[in-house]
Design a protein that fits this description.
The chain is of the alpha/beta class. It contains 15 helices and eleven strands. About 35% of the residues lie in helices and about 20% in strands. The strands form three sheets. A five-stranded parallel β-sheet has the order 2-1-7-8-9. A four-stranded parallel β-sheet has the order 4-3-5-6, sandwiched between helices. Helix 2 links the parallel strand 1 and strand 2. It is globular, with a radius of gyration of 21 Å.
């Protein structure tokens, strides 16, 4: 399919919509992984252009949304220590833990700061040696290299007052957890283009073959998504099982080799709890022994803090594509951006936030 310079061309969008109508002959359920794609789909009404037989469900591609309650509670506990300056991306501040949020901790006097890069936190630690500076390292493979660079720099500078609360997660293990579930309905994936730009997509082919599910690495603009859906629909209708790359202007199979090598130097895979989903083997990143001195959980003795998910929040089902946000009884009533039950309602990449912002509460179930 042809490279397009204008990714919000309405005429081109209608052409792709007509092509989808012609391609789709049978019912299919397709999942987009990335929360950025979810917001584009809902914002631009892409889901309303799809043929009746093509059901688009939303996946766990919002790292803020899948950060478990226990890690939020550990972050809050660390932030409340008088010697700590706690640094985080802005998305994390309003995410509810079991007893409040980082924003509430800041309102009560904790030194919680928003940074735009983990290197900003390293610089804070360098300038204020009397403070313990902690960075909340949240994100998929996309942001892990930045965190790894910060860890390497802090180690090189010999900063004894810098540490990381590591919460990075990996996409392929989450995809496998969805595919291996007895309740799985997903028959094809739109993979996240930015993740694949960094980490590549060589690990996706074994998953596609094992579960006989085609995948298309896709960008984030409306025409990226429509083009990716056309590529995926063609595979599904033909019974093909391939990993195709719609986002070829950025993503390569091997990814960014320098970034991948840096992450492997600093981190190793580990078992990680996903909010609303549960533990997934080898789905997280923890600091390797050479960097273990930067582990905030050990430095501040908060690893034992645990928390249970609220039963009234169905975010886990939304994140697994089993339910759409408006199908949750709490959506828009007990759960709003001002008073969220779960992270998908407050994250800028959360599916619930997208449905609420773009008024999809009346969409039929």
């Amino acid at each position: 399919m042809k490279y397009l310079d204008e990714y919000r061309d309405q005429r081109a969008a209608r052409r792709y919509a007509r092509l989808l109508q012609a391609l789709v002959k049978r019912p299919w359920t397709v999942m987009e992984i990335c929360g950025g794609q979810t917001h584009a789909i809902v914002r631009f009404g892409i889901d309303q252009l799809l043929p009746e037989g093509l059901n688009l469900v939303h996946g766990p591609g919002c790292p803020v949304c899948v950060t478990p309650l226990e890690l939020i509670d550990r972050a809050i506990a660390i932030s409340r220590k008088p010697e700590v300056t706690f640094c985080s991306f802005g998305d994390m501040l309003r995410v509810p833990g079991s007893r409040g949020s980082l924003l509430e901790a800041r309102a009560q006097g904790a030194d919680v700061r928003v940074v735009y890069s983990p290197l900003d936190a390293v610089e804070l630690a360098r300038r204020a040696p009397e403070r313990q500076v902690v960075f909340f390292a949240v994100g998929f493979e996309t942001t892990a290299p930045m965190t790894a660079m910060a860890a390497r720099q802090a180690k090189t500078l010999g900063l004894s007052n810098f540490s990381l609360l590591a919460a990075h997660v990996l996409v392929p293990p989450a995809m496998e957890a969805i595919l291996s579930s007895p309740s799985n309905k997903v028959q094809g994936f739109l993979a996240a283009g930015h993740v694949c730009t960094v980490a590549g997509f060589e690990d996706y082919a074994p998953l596609a073959r094992k579960y006989r599910v085609p995948m298309v690495v896709t960008g984030f603009e409306p025409l990226d998504i429509l083009q990716g859906l056309c590529m995926l629909a063609r595979q599904l209708e033909r019974g093909e099982i391939e990993v195709q790359n719609q986002y070829s202007r950025s993503a390569r199979a091997a990814g960014n080799k320098a970034a991948v090598a840096l992450v492997r130097e600093v981190f190793e895979p580990c078992r990680r709890q996903w909010r609303g989903i549960g533990p997934i083997e080898s789905s997280g990143l923890r600091l390797r022994p050479d960097y273990a001195g930067l582990d905030a959980e050990q430095r501040f003795a908060v690893a034992g803090i645990a928390a249970a998910e609220p039963k009234e929040c169905l975010a886990g089902e939304v994140l697994q594509g089993l339910r759409k946000p408006h199908q949750c009884p709490a959506f828009g009533s007990l759960c709003t951006p001002e008073h969220p039950l779960g992270a998908p309602m407050v994250s800028s990449e959360g599916a619930c936030a997208a449905y609420h912002r773009y008024h999809r509460s009346r969409q039929p179930a």
